[in-house]
Amino acid sequence: MIEFRNVSKNFGEQNVLDKLNLVVEEGKITAIMGPSGAGKSVTLKLLMGLLKPDEGQIFVHGSDICALADDELASLRKKFGMLFQDAALFDYMNVFENVSFPLYEHTKLSDEEIEKRVEASLNEVGLENVNQKLPNELSGGMRKRVGLARAIILEPPIVLFDEPTTGLDPIITSQIGDLILETHAKRNNTFLMISHDLALSYRVAHKIAMLYKGQIVEFASPKELKYSTHPFVREYLQAQLNLEGSR
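^ that's the sequence the OP posted. Answer follows.
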C-alpha cells in the first residue's frame, strides 16, 4: 500500500530524515512514534506530496509519488483522508458545510445525495443533530469526530491521523480510540497515525514504527515492541510509562 525507500529530507543543515525505510501494510493500522522533532509530521507531508524528499522514493499503490506530475499528484491525493491534529475545521462553516465540503469540491452528487452521505458519515462517528453547529460550539472530542467524518466522506482507501488525541482528557481519548477501531472495522482501510500517545498506539495499532534520528529503528507489533532491545526504544517506552504513572 505505502512504502518509503531510503527517503531523506533536509532543511538547511538540519537532517530530518536519513534514508528512512518503512512499509505500511494494506488494511492495517500503523502508528509512527518518536520524540518531538523526529520528523513524524514531515513524513506525513512527504506522503501527501506537500514536500518532496531530497533522496529516495515513496510509493502509494505502486506509483512513485515523487515522479508524478502535478495533476497526477492531485488525483492521487484523493486516495487520502486526513484527520488533522486540531481537526482543522473551517471556523466560518457549520458542521454540515465542513463535512460536505469535499463532496462539493470533488464530486457531482446532487444536494440530496450529499445530505444522505453527510448524515451517514456523521452517524458513523457517533454524531447527530449537530449539522447547524459551528466548530466553536463543539467540544474538542466532537470536533475530532467531525474531522474524521470529513476525512472519510470520500471513502478514501488511506486515512492519516496527526496526533488524534492531543489536548483531550482521558475519557475522550478512550472514546477516540474506540472510534478509530470501530471505523477501521467497518471500512478495513489503511490507517497511518502519528502519535505521542503510547497507550493509544498499543491499543489500536497493528504495528508501531519508532522514528529516531531520521530512521525507523524498530517496527513491530505492540506486544513485540515491549521486548525491544534498542536503547532508544527502551528509554522512550520507559519514559512514557513513567509519565503515565505520574498522572
